[in-house]
Amino acid sequence: MPKYPGLNKILVIGSGPIIIGQGCEFDYSGTQACKALREEGCEIVLLNSNPASVMTDSSMADATYIVPMTLETLKKIILKERPDAVLPTLGGQTALNLSIELFKSGILATHGIRLIGASVEAIEKAENRKLFREAMKLIGLDTPLGYTASNIQDVLLIEKKLKFPIIVRTSFTLGGHGSGIATTSAELYNMCQYLFSVCDFMKIELEESLLGWKEFEMEAIRDCADNCIIVCSLENVDPMGVHTGDSITVAPALTLCNKQYQKMRQATFSVLREIGVNTGGANVQFAVHPETGRMVVIEMNPRVSRSSALASKATGYPIAKIATQLALGYTLDELDNMLTAEKIPASFEPSIDYVVTKLPCFNFEKFPHCDGILTTTMQSTGEVIGIGRNFQESLQKALCSMEKNFSGLSLKITLRGNALEKISKSYHDRLFYIAESFRQGLTINEVYQKTRIDRWFLEQIFELIYLEKFIINTDFSNISKEKWIGLKRQGFSDRYLAELLQCDESIIRKKRKALGIFPVYKRVDSCAAEFSARSACLYSTYEEECEALPTENKKILIIGSGPNRIGQGLEFDYASVHAAIASRECGYETIMVNSNPETVSTDYDIVDRLYLEPLTLEHILNIIDVEKPTGVITHFGGQTALNLVSELYKANVPLLGTSANAIDRCENRDLFQKIVTQLGLLQPENFCIHHIDEWHRYAEKIQYPVIIRPSYLLSGSSMQIIKNKEEYLAYANLLENDKKYFPVLVERFLENAIEVEIDGICDGKDVFIPGVIEQLEPAGIHSGDSVCCFPAHTLPDTVQQKIIQKATQLARHCEIRGLFNAQFVIQKEQIFIIEINPRSSRTIPFLSKALGISLPQIATRCILGLSLREQGYFRPIKTHYFSIKIPVFPFDRLGGEKVLGPEMRSTGEQMRIKKDITSLRSGSIDSIGYDFISLQQMERCVK
Description:
The chain is of the alpha+beta class. The radius of gyration is 27 Å and the shape is globular.
């Protein structure tokens, strides 16, 4: 059927700032939605307060409002823009909850505006746990025994009807927020009392415990003609009790027999029909008792979800795009599934012949008070995937992708505490303790009794540990080629083998290549190789046929930023996407390497070829061997990509942008200190410590307070303000086993100072610095955690000019080519240089939105040989507005003191635009307000 008539102008609601439970997967889905609407000729109005998102680029919509995500702003947008419909199903729980408020306000009915993607009735029935339970009963599906409590008296009565442990849940929440497991009456009372106290109108669901049950998810789509498909089945390796976002997850489900799968598939379709999902994607979660086989429906999301991003990248099926088209009135049989050479309709149910493993990533090291135990409330900040022909290969590739210095189920992981005790609870690193338990001689059944992880998965891990012993006791000079290939097919990285054999990774790589053992690349394919795939997405494995099909064209390989984590998040994915766009416009084929399934950079239509691979030296070099790119850009992948530069340089990889030597001079604290002295610039009084043995030599000479700045760090990791000798010596213990941070700069801490930063571009000759970003918080608070303002609003023009001059001098002397970020501290009119980062920074998207230009694209063109003057950028830009970046923090989930310091702790940010902020420094953030203006209108003012 054709598109619904009268849908010409669509208001899309985004998800707002990145928070735990609602991450960059909604940047991916929202961006796909905007592209799909554009293809249908719709005019797009967008609400999203997140400046780091590709979705909020001005090219994505006709009117983009980067304003607070509130009912009031939605009403203003509707009155100003008069859209025909509102699409809320691509913006996570934030968008869904706002759409309910919008409907109840009556403004939709008053102005004849449709809600598309999901009806209010469907949202209410799916999100209200009591209504959902009743709906499931109507269609004969089992749900956990549960009761609704409106007050603490209800809780005390319900407690008598359920056995402990009792699961506490709330409706209309995000990432399991507010949920928990009560094992005693006191825990139940305290948990519920808190929930009632934070929301007067909240109703709480108390449910029977399903702890230890197996958990599955079905990612499904239904259209208005009742065509239903399962896009992907997902299985959580961790049993019930761990939030799905925090669980190790595999696709497809690996321990379901066909009878169980078909039962779950039909139940999913029944759920979609009863709830009323008929215009897009939905996610249904099931629990299965491991002994009896009893199956219950846990919940469903009537929208594109976190799991949708994983399912979409796992199968190559563009869920968000299809969901948007269905919301406009199309049916599945009218749409193309995009990924085969033959025309296959989107109603063709995907099938995959490989295994995808998702591992969650945590930042507990930044919150030392956290015990690291996983519960029903989500705590992870991001995720990675590994793709292989079997579970073992995909698991070990995912481990290599985690940016935690893992090489697989490595022996070199530092384990704290008794392994048997650790596997009894769902610690975030339990996987390594399970491996250690097998090393210590525990049986599969003993580990199963402690973890309730399905025995099949435990058998796979047990076999890997058994192979460890084989490798350690084997003379690899005589090992057969077939056995070596077998180990590679089970995911053993070169580095893992080197650790087991106690040799250098380069030796393993050299021997492997001498035997002619190289990976091949297969396409991510929704048709299980039944048809010729045209997917741009590839993964490595050790088989015969390679499907990469590299061309002889000139091409650029871009190294992405890996998993979302505090300090390196969506901002670097934004820069990588724009680098790909600029490279393509300059006439190059584009190749992306990344391991993050949530992002726009790993979407199906961003680059010519996408490698979903770990960002390690082995995997990058393997891809370069196959593709033979004209050049490799590490500039936009944050510290992850930058840390690869030295080894890539040694391997004679054609690196573009700032040279390896120049990067080292900027990142190495000792070398940078010498540059500052040479240029006659000011740094706070400091000295360098090159080895832990030197630490005690300076203990008596220091004037406190000081700030410790290690080298090659991300998001202020391990930075600390030290107030006395005792703290100084205690810090030494932290660094004793971490040589990667040396040399370490010990610097006099400047109190009562103002911190500023600049983002600039150098083409090797000229330097373009748009202006100065001023931090609201005093020096000592990490810049990523500070409210900041562009342009600077309290500094005299003369001071700003001096800052720009010093940054220009540094960029030229350091021979930077591309983007750079420099940070300064101002105390008593003196300007001190803190550091310079020779790469893209986390403020680049914010500044790009504030200026109405793409700084990563300008930088990419410079890297590829087009000068700043040729592009027309060689002087600061005068803006008629102030742009304000406001961080958001995970304290509501990870707890702890809300005290900020030199180590970054925020997960995301939001942006506001103001014409006048004279009282910003003295006023609270909530009183800043905003000017109701679209990004496109602001850009016209800037230009």
